[in-house]
Amino acid sequence: MTAERGPSRRAVAEWIPSLVSVLGAVLLAVYLAEQRFLYWPLDLTSRGFLVGFFVAMVFIAPVLGGGYWLARTDLPTKRYPRIGKWILGGSAFFLSINLPVMAVMTFDDFAFRVSWGRWATSIGAAGGLLVGYIEARAIQRELQAQRAAIRAEEAENQRQWFDYLNGLLRHEVLNTANVIVGYASLVLEDDDIDPATQTQLETIHRQGENMTKVIRDVQVLIETTSDIAHLEPVDLSSALDSELSQLRDTYDSVTVEATIPDGVTVRADELLPRIFSNLLRNAVEHNDGDPEVRVNVDEGDDTATVRVADNGPGIPDGERSTLFERGDNTGAKHGLGLYLVRTLVERYGGSAELTETGPEGSVFAVELPLSETPPEVGPGERPEVDGQRVSSPRDDSGRGDAPRADSPRGDTPRADGGHSTGSTK
After folding, report:
1. pTM more than 0.85
2. How many alpha carbons fall within 13 Å on the CB side of residue 185?
3. Where exactly are the structural domains of the chain?
4. Measured distance CA(220)–CA(170) in Å, rounded
5. Mind listing the pLDDT tens digit for each residue in 180-195?
6. Which positions ≥6 away from 382 have C-beta within 8 Å?
7. N or C, which end of the chain is more exposed by having fewer CB within 10 Å?
8. Which residues contact 405 (CB under 8 A, 6 or more apart)?
9. pLDDT at residue 287 is higher than 80
10. In this predicted model, what pLDDT tens digit does every residue of 208-223 receive, in sequence order?
11. Do residues 383 and 265 touch, judged by C-beta distance below 8 A?
12. What CATH number is given for 232-424 in this structure?
């Protein structure tokens, strides 16, 4: 029974704007009928008719058009019945206080009595519509304020839980994983261990490193979810140079080619390098041969596009449509890395996509909005925003700023002021 009552009430409520307009039409028809009986034949140009018509329409017009206007406001349908009650109540109240006066008046003109009653009803209906709408709007604002307060409280509770989880990952899980990896590394340096034990230790060491990477990715996801993005100009060129230096230091066998103009500044935050650390790491770790990575930056009018190409085996057809999604990729071949890439890129108002893939390799393109106010820097200086260094920020892995690609690594300067790193291993 309860389930049937809800829809029927809603259906009735949806008719209220139309019924309000019908009431206005009835009042207008009554007024025209009054003129027929009181002032026939009508002189539409006479002052008496024009004044009477104007006075009548001051109250009839709001009711006549009120239904059309009410249906197009942003008030929810469930507020309509209360407005309807105010209209009916206002009409009945104002008519009731005029009826006794009409009863004691000594005149026999029935049409005049009808005109008086129509006038009282019009005033009451128009006033009820106004009061009902104001009250409904006040109720709606109060409900919205309460909901906003509840959402803010829930958001604060969620933020506190995220902070707790982030601290737990950082101080408990990540530290434990680092201890496991560290002791495994020490034992692997012992030349006297037998081959079977060495294989098992290598598995422990590899899995520990993978767990450490996943924990750091989860920490970044928690931070992007719990914090409001405070975007500022960040030196994209320095961030890419730093990540490429880290890639060379971590993987001795990788060949890197890069064309990165100097001074490309995008609107981002301190998490920007994590986009490219994940893309570059994927390009190397999912390549069973000799990995080659090519990075190219194109600066347009409003955006900068970073293309990361590799010579890997390509992305299987079944994985391409969900490559940047969270669900099935969690714990799969690409882990959280590409989901984290998409999350951060969207945080900055950009886009990330797989533009090419096949047996000869894959190309990922990341498009980021350029900063409207790039930081002013002098020769050899790093940009600052509000007194904060913004190039090559530290991430939660504890890595500091790496040397730029134009530091002594055999790089060659370009005529356009940028630099192009050679093929290095």
Report:
1. no
2. 8
3. 1-228, 232-424
4. 11
5. 888 888 888 887 888 8
6. 235, 238, 389, 390, 391, 392
7. N
8. 240, 241, 244, 245, 258, 260, 411, 419, 421
9. yes
10. 776 776 677 676 666 6
11. yes
12. 3.30.565.10
